[in-house]
Each structure stands twice: as structure tokens, then as C-alpha cells.
Amino acid sequence: MDINLETFINQVEPHKIQSAHPPCDFKNRHVWESKLLYSVVNKLFSSCSLIDLGCGGQQTMKYSLFNRFPDSKYYGIDPTLNNMKDFSSLVKKVDCCVAGSVFTHLDFSNIKKILNTLKPMFDRGGEFGFTFFLGTEELHYGPNWYKDSNTWHVATTTVNQYEEYCENHGLKFKLLPFDHTNHTIHLKDKPGDNRFVATQNFANISKE
Ligand SMILES: C[S@@+](CC[C@H](N)C(=O)[O-])C[C@H]1O[C@@H](n2cnc3c(N)ncnc32)[C@H](O)[C@@H]1O
Questions:
Q1: Who lines ligand 1 at CB under 6 A?
Q2: If you classify domain 5-207 with CATH, what class do you get?
Q3: CA-to-CA distance for 173 and 186, rounded, in angstroms?
Q4: 140 and which of 88, 114, 147, 152 could share a cystine (Cβ 3.0–4.6 Å)?
């Protein structure tokens, strides 16, 4: 799709479904979900298929997708939906995958497992768009944030980590030229300043 981000954001009205996860207000959610979809813009077309990994119970991204592409296919995957087992078979048939506010809660060993699982999609030319908290080092605050996985309230990861993984796996990492400030998170276990201004960065991974 040949379209700039601003036009893409304004292409459709916000779906106005209230999300339990930040960004919660419908205007900010619309912009954030639009940015996340735009992170795989090269793979979006009328009948495209997309996995929303870590979609959350409400799967609000599906409305952002269907409002633009009513004939597309949406697959929401999340531990809380008990359907993580479907992820590895779905990656063999979709055009793209997004993960919004998921790597912001995972350590890099967990992230690598997800990237490994996406290999069949990358091999078929598919793309992956995601958000993360860009740090100068990998840091974790607030353990066991979600049940059944090794998760954190806040996890930062670095560009070097993604670049190194991609170099070793014949993939290309792109830090996208836009970000999104959601809200201020209060960290209970961060020494000194206990506030974390949650600016998410967006990135794309595809085959080299
Ligand atoms: C902050 S919520 C984001 C929800 C949604 N993507 C949104 O639009 O806001 C993080 C989600 O990641 C899910 N999650 C936790 N560990 C995960 C993992 N290893 N793989 C995929 N999703 C995971 C959680 O269950 C939760 O629904």
C-alpha cells in the first residue's frame, strides 16, 4: 500500500471500542492501532490475513483492520484465550503479524522464541510489526505480570538485540520513524524515580 502514516490514520473513523489495555481512550487507541497496522503496511491489501499476537481478550485491533479491509482475515492469539497452540500453524498461512504492547512485557529470551516461531511467515515474505520500550539495555520491572509466562510489568529491549538476532537469521530489522506516548507507569520496584513514561517505539522485521 502506498500511503503515508497521517493519511492512513485518517482513512477511517475510530472504532470507539473501549480497551482494557492502554491506550484506553478511543482517540489515542485509534492512532496507536493505526500505527501498529502501518508497521506492516506493505502487507496490507483487501483480502490480507493478519495475526494479532497478544491481542488481549477484546481483540480491538480487529475493528481497525476490518474498518479498512472488510474482506481481510484476522486471527487473535493470546495466552488468555488459550489458543497459543494455534500460533505455529497460523504463521504458515498469513501475510503479516503484529504484536502491540507485548514485547513491552517480555524478556528477550521469550521474544526470541516468538521470532523463531515466525520463521515460516518470514520465509514466505511475510512481515512482523511490533511495539517495544526502546532502552539502552535490557531491563525488567515487576515480575509475573501475566500468568502462565515469564512476563514483566515493564521490559525494555535494545535495537542491538533485534539487529543481532536478525543478522543471525537472515532478517532485516527496521526501527520505524514514529513512536507513541501512552501514559505514565508507576513502577513499584524501580529504585529512585518510580515513574516510567511509557513511550512505545514501533519496528518491522522482514526477510533480508
Ligand atoms: C498489554 S496487553 C496488550 C493487549 C493488546 N495487544 C492491545 O491492543 O492492547 C499484553 C498482552 O500480551 C499477552 N501475552 C503475555 N505473554 C505473552 C506471550 N508470551 N505471547 C503472546 N502474548 C502474550 C497478555 O496475555 C496480554 O493480553
A1: 19, 21, 53-56, 60-61, 78-80, 100-102, 105-106, 110, 146, 149, 151
A2: alpha beta
A3: 30
A4: 152
